[in-house]
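Work Package 3 (structural annotation) set out to generate three-dimensional models for the target panel prioritized at the project kickoff. During this period the team completed the workflow that converts sequence records into discrete structure tokens, so that structures can be stored uniformly alongside our sequence database. As a representative example, we reproduce one entry of 340 residues exactly as it appears in the project archive.
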Amino acid sequence: MTTTNTKTKKDPSLPVAWIGGVTFTFLIAFLGYLLAMVPGFNHVGQLACAIIIAVFYRQIFGYPESIRYGITFSSKRILRVAIILYGLKLNIATVLSEGLGLLLRDAGVIIFAILATMWLAKVFKADKTISLLLGIGTGVCGAAAIAAVAPIIKSKDEETAISVGIIALIGTIFAIGYTILRPFLPLDTISYGIWSGTSLHEVAHVALAGAPAGEDGLAIALLAKLGRVFLLVPLCFIFIYIMKRKNKEDEANTHIEFPWFLIGFIILSILGSFVFGHSIPVSEVVMDGVFTLTTWLLTAAMVGLGLNVNLKDLRTKALRPLAAMTITSIALSILVYFIV
């Protein structure tokens, strides 16, 4: 085994495989960007479109083994960079200014989403890992939450990609459903915004659903969502503790790699909340550019994961977790609706 590793390190084709693989994931990310401009797909978003293309590429042409090294780099390393940059989207000051009530409500949403999804998964005899990732994505912030927790619970790339694809699809359907229901609901602008931000999956889904409520409705929707994003970090540390306790009797699995990218996430959250735009002036153009870069990096990383998906396994693994997550999402929407 040592000989093989040494040989791999000295392999002159590795730089080519790295460049080729990374470039390939960004190429499919670009195709996803173009597909997301097509009417109908524009509501699905670049990330989900890119995963769809990656999955179908794998089924038609197979996995591009010659550039695996670069694809793996995208799905592992670039993913962590994207999560770190995602921290800039979290304004800690805004969340904390709303007080303990906001965080307690959001914590309740996260706990309900995870426990309900896992209970339904047990009833349906669904895949536990995918169901857990979907529960986390539903409760916290969609793909970003799934990507952050996946390495902690040692999810396979395929399971992570399936979960991200499902959360993007269902979240989009729910967000569009919210905009359709908006004129018929007896909710004022603020209440509708709180409902959207507290119950929908991704930040993008909240923005899509909150827009019809105007600036005030959208602002409160995003604020409600930020509280859930804020709780991603403590949730990750809880899972680190759970995994260590779970594997303490198995020496081969006791070591859980500390997710250092979460420290980067926290640092950039603090900088974005208290430094950039305050003591260090940063224009909106620059921040928008960073957010765009974050989207592209996350999309390329998800392409790398999507290339690991086998549709045969998708049929056997995904349908039951999908059912569990859909029921949980409906229940969460109804519950939050009556709370607000």
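Residues 100-124 form the longest helix (25 residues).
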